[in-house]
TrEMBL record:
One BP term from GO: single strand break repair
Protein name, UniProt field: Transcription factor
Gene Ontology CC terms, in alphabetical order: nucleus
Pfam families: AAA_33, DcpS_C, zf-C2HE
Amino acid sequence: MMESMEIDREKAPSTGEEKKETKPIVVVLVGLPGSGKSTFCDEVMRISSRPWARVCQDTINNGKSGTKIQCLSVAATALKDGKSVFIDRCNIDREQRADFLKLGGQQTEKHAVVLDHPAKLCISRSVKRTGHEGNLQGGKAAAVVNQMVPKKELPKLSEGFDRITFCHDERDVKEAVNVYGSLSPLDSLQSGCFGQKKSDAKIQLGIMKFLKKVDPSGKAGSEPTVCQKSIPNELSVGEILSCREPKWILELLSIPTLAFPSISTADFQFNLEKASDIIVEKVEEFISRIGKARLVLVDLSQGSKILSLVKTKAAHKNIDSNKFFTFVGDITRLHSQRGLHCNVIANAANWRGGVNAAIFKAAGSALEIATKEKAVSLSPGKSVIVPLSSSSPLFAREGVTHVIHVLGPNMNPMRPDCLKDDYVQGCKILREAYSSLFEGFVSIVRSHGLASMHNSGRPLESGGFQEVIPTNDDQKAKREADYESEKNKKYKGLRRDLKSCASNSMDEEKIQDKSVNMTKSWASWAQALHDVAMHPNKHKSVVLEISDDVLVMNDAYPKAQRHLLVLARVDGLDSIADIRREHIPLLKTMHAVGLKWAVKFLNENKSLSFRLGYHSVPSMRQLHLHVISQDFDSNHLKNKKHWNSFTTPFFLDSVDLIKELEDVGRVTLKDDKCLAMELRCHRCRSAHPNIPRLKAHISSCQATFSADLLQNGRLVSSPGVKDVLAWVYVGTIQNVDNALPYHNLSSYLLIFLMPIAIVA
């Protein structure tokens, strides 16, 4: 199935032509019972930043089955509130769909998502399911599906739909979920019919628009006016054969393409304005030398400022948007997730985390081995080309044949060889880095072109490009490379050890397994906790308790009535990504101190409950344990990220983390996708559209906590669930300004011996 999207996520600086919020969408789901309509809605709403409302006839009447009229009324209200709407009904014929196509008039887009699974599969699912919202399960469900099958009428654009997506299997469904789940309030999708299996189906407007043959109005297409060009996610064999120029499309997908991140602007903290000027300058210089090849600047963030700056400046320079554009996505999954085929990707080899770690992890050991064979070290401003073997997962899954390691200048005082804001030298090095990167890509493009015309019969290298007779430029580049290699042997200054770079990344993969490498740079504002932990005498006013190992302070922006931080006083432990088995005693001490304070607060207010845990990806440097009451009554709790950072798997309970370290010697981290999940009450799990409504609900919710929290000491509360004795042992504690009445205690002292409910 092919999903061709026109999604413009980049918000450029104000030019008087800023994009207005797009129309709400009414998505009419079409499918038999058991086809997965409700699951589709839930999956999209779980990952989407766009406000959605699900209108389900099975639950429309206060949790019970209702009428079509009720569905229309609720949908109309949701649209007025600025939400897009899923119509979760079977909608199997034209008549059932007609009224929903009138919702919102011309101010809404009308889409259909057809879950066109075999009746046999739908029956099997319906019969097996339990607890269905509409109680349609067992033998009754099988009978209903059989009755509906003859009546099923697939939707057509002529009914009034702007877009129809057909899903024939789970892969199609997953792609459709990703398409709708990635829509922000400012995004839109192309019109047309997508994924229809019929051989005589009309050519999809999305494909034709991509081919610049027609637009939805039937007029000749035009060149895109922005740097980010719409790329089809994937073309099925049937869709390629149904196009008038399948060869043209195949050639397009095989165009040599370099995907590269912005060098030095993330971990090395290079000025974005200066960096964007240099990127556009170097792209403009090299664009005429790459033939039909393409350069793509990639960033993972939808709100990336560097992409926005580069896009605007490239447009002002009238750089050909077919040859250079910006793109939002994971550089290691551009083809599989976003449909952009890039045979060469650049690795900003600046540190063991970030893009560098992601590329080494995605490429597997093949890249590590090849990198060690090609180079030992790399000087700032230089690059090295490493061909990938076909055994690499990055080659097999994404079609990446080469990785170009490139090193830029460092402006981050927390990283080696900082230039200390010397932007004269920094800009010189960054220009050299992009020149070296693009020269490397030019050599690959040349090799690819000559290999196809002058095949001498020699076996191709693992990367798929045959070595060819060098031109004068190639010989010059080789001489420069040889000189650089000799210079590296003697070079004592700025240099990145690629062997270490690869090994560190692979070690991180082995240590964290399924987790994402969380090593990151820390902005100046994020250094505050580290400064307090390392220099407590400068911050006596905020320190509540201190020992040789830990320090206790209030969170500066508490997200609940009681919110403490227990900091580790060990330099080099920035977050839980850095902890190993040998840190278990320290973690137990931190937990014991945090538990002691929870008990103290419970003595003052028995209505509170507490959790002790860590953020998978903390925003502040220095390992710290959160001790937070579960009322979440705070003016500082303002957005979805705040809420989900404490109520989703992103928050790792201290007791679980310690046990996992004891059992397997490592911690499995959660990435920050959890922060985008929908807002749900942490007690009853009910969903809420925004923070004010969620706060209003949790202030009165009396539901018991989830079963998993009521186990293994994850939840700490006053007596009433299970009275146990909390034996809390900590090391010698030194008080700061007599904040606590515990002075010069013996090495291990029983601080508390009192009834407290630690739910087990």
